[in-house]
Amino acid sequence: MADRKSNKIGISGKSNELITDFDPPKPPKRNKYALACGMLASMTSILLGYDCGVMSGAQKYIQKDLDCNDTQIEILVGIINLYSLVGAAVAGRTSDWIGRRYTIVLAGAIFFIGAILMGFATNYAFLMVGRFVAGIGVGYALMIAPVYTTEVSPASARGFLTSFPEVFINAGVMLGYVSNYAFSKLPTNLGWRFMLGIGAIPSVVLAVGVLAMPESPRWLVMQGRLGDAKIVLDKTSDSLEESKLRLADIKEAAGIPEDCNDDIVQVPKGSHGEGVWKELLIHPTLAVRHILLCALGVHFFQQASGIDTVVLYSPRIFEKAGIVNDTPQLLATIAVGFVKTVFVLVATFLLDRIGRRTLLLSSVTGMIVSLMTLSIALTIVNHSDHKVPWAIALSIVTILSFVGCFSMGLGPIPWVYSSEIFPLRLRAQGCSMGVAVNRVVSGVIGMTFISLYNAISIAGAFFLFAGIAMVACLFFYTLYPETQGRNLEEIEELFGTFFWWRSRQAELDKKKEAKMMANKAQD
Q1: From residue 19, how far is each of 23, 26, 513 by CA, in Å?
Q2: 10 pairs with which residues across the strands?
Q3: Which of 95, 199, 106 is nearest to 151 (CA)?
Q4: Is residue 423 part of a domain?
Q5: What is the pLDDT, as a whole number, of residue 29?
Q6: Helix axes 286-304, 307-320, angle to 10 degrees
Q7: What is the pLDDT of residue 82?
Q8: Quick one: which of 422, 488, 451 has its CA closest to 78?
Q9: How far apart are CA 509 and CA 419, in angstroms?
Q10: Per residue in 361-420, pLDDT tens?
């Protein structure tokens, strides 16, 4: 046994005690303070999740009560995503102006007003006004939550913590589905108003809770408040050495001299956001262009693959799959929310272990298989003169597998990836562009799905989404480098050239380093 162990490390004649020199270091324990900050910030994403979930069931009662046609319902359901563009567009600049923390509070306050307006809506036009106000709050929340969480997270847990927005989106969806079921027995004119209006409650709780959080250390440095930034970094880092390294990296990115140790300094012009749009869109470097393509691409394919059709129209899809009664439809919809929530929780623990790239490609592959199988099952159900129980069961199973695969990778990774790959000076505005793309595509899908399946059938719609997912898989495989475990200020170096060359070079460097360690141990 001793010889077998010696051969494993490639050193003959050495004591087995040397084996301990090659044991990988144990990962540090989760930083509880950073964990609490990330959770509080990410809980703002409940607002979007709740709205999406509750509208899937409320739309049927709204249509009956306000006598709306299918086109009006499509617009009502999907328009909040386009309205959220207003919030996302100004959230980047707002967060640079008043700080990440107060921007989160502002998001909760705006959504609160929108939820109240929707709950008291007396007609379709009034309801659309409420959707507009709530949409602005959603845009703020979607942009700022991952940015703040990324900036307070240590590198060892950044994937875990920045996946929380997607976790809470799913939790919000689940709450929305439960709200549908809970209020479905009320009179039609009251049920949907309670479903929408009760969304004001979590927004108040979140806005108050966020005030207990510290400000982002990177924003503090951008304001020249180095002393305050150091205090936050000491609390949110895994060690004091990491805190010093993070502070040095942020100071370098902000253009502050490394030897400057004053608590308050004058930050060089250009660190407050001036010229950011020019650097992003007009004169980007090769690395920034690559980063922008990856950030916008991952948000585009997250929504273009059709996930919001299931979230927003689950009862209609289950009806097409052969479940005709309201109560079974709502219960099946709750199952969708449960699966989404469970699988995204699993993803949070895998992001920092197996990496973003592997998880993303595995997720999209599973989605492709699920969508193709779902399309076949729906084709059989819709072209049969009698009920086909196995096809109905297969439809339900593949809907659940589709949302499960999505939540394992393509659900959380866009928020993690886009919030960590932008350089500090471009992060807020770059992330707001990603959110804008995300919401536009989601809005288009949400506002056209009923028309789409009426035109090409429900099975044809999911065949189309399967084709888009195939393109997404090729796009991710070709362009996306792994960012796992790297400091935020190092990640920019991964971009600007073909990533597979860098991956090959990193592999060669790793082998070279291992060989040098073995030679050193032999000496």
Answers
A1: 7, 15, 17
A2: none
A3: 95
A4: yes
A5: 62
A6: 10
A7: 86
A8: 451
A9: 27
A10: 999 999 999 999 999 999 999 888 788 889 989 999 999 999 999 999 998 888 888 878
- Count how many domains the chain has: 1
The answer to whether residues 6 and 14 touch, using CB atoms and an 8 Å cutoff, is yes
Q: How many CA atoms lie within 13 A of 330 on its CB side?
A: 21
Question: Residue 225 forms beta bridges with which residues?
Answer: 264
- pLDDT at residue 331 greater than cutoff 70: yes
Domain enclosing residue 451, as ranges: 32-264+271-501
Cα(21)–Cα(335) distance, integer angstroms: 49
Q: Is residue 413 assigned to a domain?
A: yes
323 — alpha (psi -120 to 50), left (phi > 0) or beta? beta
Query: Contact, 271 vs 425, CB < 8 A?
Result: yes
The distance of Cα 441 from the centroid of its chain, to the nearest Å, equals 15
Establish if 308 belongs to a structural domain: yes
pLDDT at position 200 over 70: yes
The angle formed by the CA atoms of residues 177, 414 and 469, to the nearest 5 degrees, is: 80
- How big, in percent rounded to 5, are the helix, strand and coil portions of the chain? 80, 0, 20
Does residue 269 have a pLDDT over 80? no
CATH code assigned at 104: 1.20.1250.20
Confidence at 274, pLDDT banded by 50, 70, 90: low
Structure-token pair, residue 142: 């979607």
| Terminal C-alpha separation, the chain | 24
The pLDDT, as a whole number, for residue 299 is 94
